[in-house]
Amino acid sequence: MSELKDRLRADLTTAMKARDPLRTSTLRMAMAAVKDEEVAGRSARELSDSDVQKVLTREVRKRREAADAFAAAGREEQAAKERDEGLILAAYLPQQLDDEELTEIIDRVIAEQGLSGPKAMGAAMKAVQSQVAGRAEGSRVSALVRARLL
User: Could you read off the pLDDT of 74-90 as tens digits, one per residue?
Assistant: First the structure.
């Protein structure tokens, strides 16, 4: 079993004992998403830490999008709850790269591969995504790569 999944389960037990309703419900939701991913497809499988991170990244993105939608609809209380859930889940993910670090990686990849112009976007994205591996959101990476190639 993956260490991250064990950590989620242990933290869920702790949150339940502490009677922390937000943390408990958030971690239950995360464990359910992990379980759903394990049984998806033709046969059940055990997820690795990187697979669990992908599930959690997807869940954090869902929370951010839901918070934006609730805020746009004027439901600030629900938006705040979604943001709080996202923060709880984000604590289980690797530290995100800041724009400066991400820009350095992008510049290095573009220079190493001699990429230029908008037609090189796909090759640049593939190379950069392999370098950042879950430490930066794809939309951020895409925007910075596009800015560098134009």
Answer: 999 999 999 999 999 99
